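Sequence decides. Consider this:

===
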Amino acid sequence: MLVIINGNIRTMEQQDYEDGYIQIEQGKIVAIGDMRDCDKGALRDRDDVQVIDAKGNLVMPGLIEAHCHMGITEEKKGMEGDDCNENVDPVTPYLRAIDAINPMDASFHDAQQAGITSAMIGPGSANVVGGQFAFLKTYGRCIDQMIVKAPAAMKIAFGENPKVNYSGQGTSPSTRMAIAAMLREELTKAKAYQKRRETDSETEKDFRYECWLPVLRGEIPLKAHAHRADDILTAVRIAQEFGLAMTIDHCSEGHLIIEELQKAGFPAIVGPDMASRNKIEVQNMAFKTVGILSGRGILTAVTTDHPVSKIQFLPICAGLAVKAGMSMEEGLRAITINPARICGVDDRVGSLAVGKDGDIAIFNGNPMEVFTRNLCTLIEGKIVYYDEQSAML
């Protein structure tokens, strides 16, 4: 058993505790409340209790990155460690991120040190359909033991990236029309396959289309790479045509079509606003976008798109969004409970509540401020990072 005492607890639920405690057993939160209700005597009498004295520091749910390529585009390894895009075929839905993510990539330690306890990781945007994302914890050596949800989303992409990749090869898609047409064709074939599987028990499984069934059944969303306003609206149009759930990833010009996005109702994962405007479609990228969207009732999260910008800068990106107009509360929610809801894992992570995973970060201030240090990171009740200077143990 592990108990955190004397913490300034921000649960990201309805109730916070200025001087509170959290009790974790077998990886799950079993109690949370005010220190006045903590039975200190019972804790002293048990030999199996590890105590962390938070000493009034901020105790929060572990931070969440809603869209990145940690371990699938490895740092320091060049081509040998880059498995992000199978850029020889524009439609590859059957690819699985879990088969390419290397949890020994340095970015995982950087995430732990920054208080980031889980992340949505998957293929890049060179293909019209890139493959399956997975939602993982950031600690471990075996991917299978780190999985929270897999598959967790199906990557699709609009705009410059598929165009540039395939026009250079002298094949489709070389236009936005072709991107949309190829996606519609693939979804039409997938729906026909779904119908055959549901109506004929003798239908043989087809590896290419079996991966679409969780999307078509509404169990996981499309994950749409779209920066420019017209690309965002094409993604919305196609998702609505086929009746599919979707997240709009990057959404750089979302603030220019706010009423349309409100009406559509899809959540947005915004960023990486810390990166350079190195493409035509990101010319209107700005930290103000996520605040404008959240202010109009759209469920939003902030992303680094690691390694486009570094995973450890996730809370700073949220802070810069607050500086640009987003509320402080929404800034914190954009890196905790909001991405958990968007990724479909809020039953386990994103807030501190009884029954949820013991994924916790302890900061000596607001994590969105640049001088704030992360003092301790726990994943499922296990300390995976500890700042020795904090002297909390």
Remarks:
- Residues 176-199 form the longest helix (24 residues).
